[in-house]
């Protein structure tokens, strides 16, 4: 059975959120580095170029091929990162927030992407889960699963998930 890490939420106004949560056997500092160091980011989610500090702007090219520009809204090492992004050609901004919570000898990662059109939530859910699985592979020192094959497995599962209303 496939482990599903995400929940889909209806935020109202035709927009929603994806929340992915997972536990990693590493320190918050190591996980923070994997989420903020451009060299490590490129190995699991995106090549990021720009000014990665509060108020700084950046450009990201995701491993999926999607591209966006963004701005860092909050950066509280090693616990919270909040960015506002706009995909090329998108009608509205989205926010991505990463929170790291100590959990015994491990660290819990909570990733939320908000402002997504409701009809796109299942696709984003599958994509976000794949990125978090690739983060796990990076931290474990193993090769990540092929994105296309994993997408074909996860997307129908997320499409069948209920969307909760906040």
List keywords for this structure.
ASHA1/2-like_C, 166 residues, single chain, START-like_dom_sf, alpha+beta, Alpha-D-Glucose-1,6-Bisphosphate, Chain A, domain 4, 4 helices
Explain this structure to me?
This protein is an alpha+beta fold and 166 residues long. The protein is 28% helix and 43% strand. It has one domain (6-165): START domain (Alpha-D-Glucose-1,6-Bisphosphate, Chain A, domain 4), CATH 3.30.530.20. The protein has helices at 28-36, 38-41, 121-140, 147-159, and strands spanning 6-12, 15-24, 46-50, 57-62, 67-76, 80-87, 94-103, 106-117, 163-165. A 9-stranded mixed β-sheet has the order 3-4-5-6-7-8-2-1-9. Helix 3 (121-140) packs across helix 4 (147-159). The longest helix has 20 residues, at 121-140. It is globular and about 35 Å long. 27% of the residues are buried. The mean pLDDT is 94.
Q: Residue share in helices? A: 25-40%
Give a quick account of the main beta sheet: strands, pairing sense, barrel closure.
9 strands, mixed
The helix-and-strand class reads alpha+beta
CATH architecture: 2-Layer Sandwich
Percentage of β-strand residues: 35-45%
Radius of gyration equals: 15 Å
Coarse shape: globular
CATH homologous superfamily label: START domain
How many distinct beta strands?
A: 9
Order of strands, main sheet, comes to 3-4-5-6-7-8-2-1-9
Return the string of H and E elements. EEHHEEEEEEHHE
**First and last CA, distance:** 28 Å
CATH class placement: Alpha Beta
The number of helical elements comes to 4
* CATH topology term: Alpha-D-Glucose-1,6-Bisphosphate, Chain A, domain 4
Q: What value does the average pLDDT take?
A: 94
Domain Activator of Hsp90 ATPase homologue 1/2-like C-terminal: 26-139
Protein name: SRPBCC family protein
InterPro entries: ASHA1/2-like_C (IPR013538), START-like_dom_sf (IPR023393)
Family: Belongs to the AHA1 family.
